[in-house]
Amino acid sequence: MPLPTEFTVLDFETANEMRASACQIGLVRMNDHGETLERYSSLIKPDPGYEHFQPINISVHGIRETDVADAPTMRELASDIQAFVGTSPIVAHNMAFDYSVWRAHTELGNLPDFINPRLCTLRMARYLLQRPAGTNGLESLIHDYCPGLAFAHHDASEDARVTGELFLAMLRHLEMPLGQLVKTFALTQAPRQRDGQGSGSGNGNGTRTARPEADLTQWTNETALEGEVVCFTGTLGRMKRADVQQLVEKLGGKVDKSVTKKTTQLVVGVPSPTTWRPGMDGSSKMVKARALVEKGAALTVMTENEFFAAIEE
After folding, report:
1. More confident residue, 250 or 283
2. Which of 49, 80, 287, 305 has the most crowded Cβ, counting Cβ within 10 A?
3. How would DSSP label each residue in 7-39?
């Protein structure tokens, strides 16, 4: 079987904490010579039960419910997406998240499943390039491997475009052809499924399910969060706050009870309606995190799903 010479880059944005709430998709097909062959992007109207937009998600990508009111649904886009992806290897930055969004829509019958080889620039940075924790965000990697490449972060089409450029730059740095990387490093097995969502935060009806007793033994990579200082805000759906803080320490990280200059990750769950006030767009921890980022702090704000996707990859 001939080795691949082309690949497709995938990026999703989601409306809320449920992975079946995709509100935008970006796809870019490139070849191993660095040529962009085709681009595809679309806003997506989430299915009923998945359509609410959380403040944390809006603050990340800027997409609101009104923006997708007349957009096609994922099921309406499925044939175009499948035709674009074909059988080529799929590349993403934090593939664990993007693939789990795809799988969540597969469970709903919106998208066909696929067995394409999957390649992740985040995993490449960690395991092939041996970069330290806290330096593997998309913006940091673009700065180091594609200096001067400008992009609008968290626009799915733009993220897909620059992830493709980053992927090729990493290949050049590793002096490894695409075909060899696919043979030796690509993921091919589907991730474990939980409650039909892969996240444990909801069920097929879009409602929150009871949190199971935490089983921390399934996470074995004790350096996954090495060098990270993690803070949590909001209600978590996967496990209790105390359990996830214990998990952070098990994986080599440290826990901050409040956002400080040392915090590298702020993980945002569902905000409490009892503390919300009109005009608020997030918790006090989110407000402080944004202020620190504006001053140049290396702090990443992520949803609960993105946090678990990253440590499960």
Report:
1. 250
2. 305
3. EEEEEEEESSSSTT-EEEEEEEEEETTS-EEEE
